[in-house]
Amino acid sequence: xxxxxxxxxxxxxxxxxxxVICGLIFFFLIAPIVVIIPLSFNAEPYFTFTDRMLxxxxxxxxxxxYDSLLTFGMQRPDAPRDLGWWADxxxxxxxxxxxxxxxxxxxxxxxxxxxxxxxxxxxxSRPEMPFRRAxxxxxxxxxxxxxxxxxxxxxxxxxxxxxxxxxxGLPSNCGRLAGTYVGVILAHATLGIPFVIxxxxxxxxxxxxxxxxAAASLGANPRTTFFRITMxxxxxxxxxxxxxxxxxxxxxxVAVLFIAGPDQQTIPRQMWNGIREQIxxxxxxxxxxxxxxxxxxxxxVELLRRRSERIRGVTPH
Amino acid sequence: xxxxLDPHAAIATVATGETDGTLRTxxxxxxxxxxxxxxxxxRRRAFLLVLPLLAFIMLTFVVPIGQMLQRSFYNDGxxxxxxxxSQWFADHPRGTDPDDAAWAALAAxxxxxxxARTIGIVGTRINYDVPGTRSLFTSTGRKARGGIEPPYREAxxxxxxxxxxxxxxxxxxEASTPLTTNFYLASLDRTxxxxxxxxxxxxRQRVYVxxxxxxxWLSLLITALTFILGFxxxxxxxxxxxxxxxxxxxxxxxxxxTSLLVRTTSWMVLLQQQGVINDILVWLGLIxxxxxxxxxxxxxxxxxxxxxxxxPFMILPLYSVMRTINPSYVRAARSLGATSWTxxxxxxxxxxxxxxxxGALLVFILAVGYYITPALVGGSSGQLISNMIAMHMTDTLNxxxxxxxxxxxxxxxxxxxxxxxxxVGIDNLKLG
Lengths: 317, 432
Prior knowledge:
Structural class of chain A: mainly alpha
Low-confidence stretches of chain B: 1-5, 9-18
Distance between the termini of chain B: 33 Å
CATH architecture of the largest domain in chain A: Orthogonal Bundle
Subcellular location (chain B): Cell membrane
Organism (chain B): Paracoccus amoyensis
Strand order of the largest sheet of chain B: 1-2
Largest sheet of chain A: none
Radius of gyration of chain A: 25 Å
Oligomer: heterodimer
Number of domains of chain B: 3
Keywords (chain B): Cell membrane, Membrane, Transmembrane, Transmembrane helix, Transport
Family (chain B): Belongs to the binding-protein-dependent transport system permease family. CysTW subfamily.
CATH topology of the largest domain in chain A: MetI-like fold
Number of strands of chain A: 0
CATH topology of the largest domain in chain B: MetI-like fold
CATH architecture of the largest domain in chain B: Orthogonal Bundle
Distance between the termini of chain A: 31 Å
Number of domains of chain A: 3
Helix content of chain A: over 70%
CATH class of the largest domain in chain B: Mainly Alpha
Protein name (chain B): ABC transporter permease
């Protein structure tokens, strides 16, 4: 946007002031995320730039905090770094275990959320769907209801999921979901579902239903139509929804605090412990890795969005 | 699939049997009925697609919330384990002084609860209403395990003369039915006095109303700040050419995609007294080394960190609305003699209101329920109501109290959510 030719000098000045203000706000948005990256290479256990760092002295920088991510919790961290050391790190290092848990829980909850969410989005975007608005409101609500409330409810429910059966006179005790992988996966799937619904229904808004009719008129059964016609067209939306669901699970800590046991320590949970107890620059190393991870995810989603627009561009509306 | 969906397929052939004047389909069925049936089938199919997810959400989300609501007004910690005394309360109206039968029932229930090791649950339940009474129950329970000899009143009073306290008997009467409103009263800093009337708690114990007010006030402030910071950014992104605005959009989306804990950690690093911002201020000579600012572990920390975290939720809806505003309206206003300020105020700004409403409601709803950030950077003055819920869940284990506070917060959020649906529509919620 350029200043129009008829602008007065005052307006011209305001325009440049406005650009400066915008620049400052962008700085506010991005600086906190960028600043932790160099700090995570700090050779000293401080959270600020040391003089040596500012002089770009190589001795001011080190990989020690990244190294501590591997060694923290290991049985023999000082042993020579042979195969046995790596096996020890893989089995015992706390951050490695947290990463494994985060990936397992994230993977399965994403699968669950994406499968159920995509199916529901297909139904919700049909014009003849009854009670559309009300059902949509219910399905989106896990995103709106504060996590602390959801987690409180889940805490009661997951410690005895069958207590509901007691209301109708059935046996009301069948073990617990709290403290199990299944419990955390179900909880995270619940929290990820609204994101899948929102992204997939948004993709389906531009979907041309006559393509389905054309497929059917050419003799394809509903399943073939779905997998050969609908799915390839909405796939970018489905994948972005899945990525949203994965990030939700990967970043979630409140439900984990309330319903996970000691075996389900995830990365956010480990960070939470680290920040609350003894904050060390190792947290910054994790944070840096997570920022790199989110950059990768953002790039993927952006590419998918462009692809989706391109595909829809050739579809008549 | 398509055939069932398409009511026109039913009348592909012109009706043939026009004996009674009604339109019929090719196979002779009345058209109206065939159409209705095909529409019912289409509705059922659409619903069946949604059903698995609806059932899943009902089970893993709605039922847990329901259980939480139930806990906020249902607590059988006393009534289930003190049956005889609960029965006595049911038989005798409020105001009756405890007679011999009441003391006998109390003694019998106490010994039975001590035998069954449920005396702690009973004591905990009364402790919620009359703080400090849990030990009264457990210590009496230890002595009463072998049974209590009559006369019961004297025997119990000898163990601990607190048993005669009218406040205690009033609380036990309250707890003798599992349904109670006491946790809601406590959430609003109210309690019942000896006569069972609702009164405010002592001044120094009033915390919850203040916390609710603080939560709403801070959320409002954060919403306003995100608006002030988000509006120019959204406007810039919406008016720049697509290629450059996409590039700048990354600066908005990257924080949006970055882990909440990472962003909170960054602010802890930046704002602390030995942190980057204080270092820069000292280096610039704006403040002395001895007067470093306390910007974290107080309300300032909560406000700064939450504004940063919620800013993208304001920018994105504003941006998507501003993108659709036709620039010729402002040009037309200018050409008709409006100053740029008037053109902005009278022509441009009103058109951004839908996006502003959407963003403000979303930010406010999210801010009201925030837990992680205030817990980490808020100190004690930056704590919100959700931190109190977490405290009751994990530290004091007063789950009914946590449930009551959560229910009140939930009610507030649901009203806002309903408003959001009415004003903006759930369908218009967009991400990224």
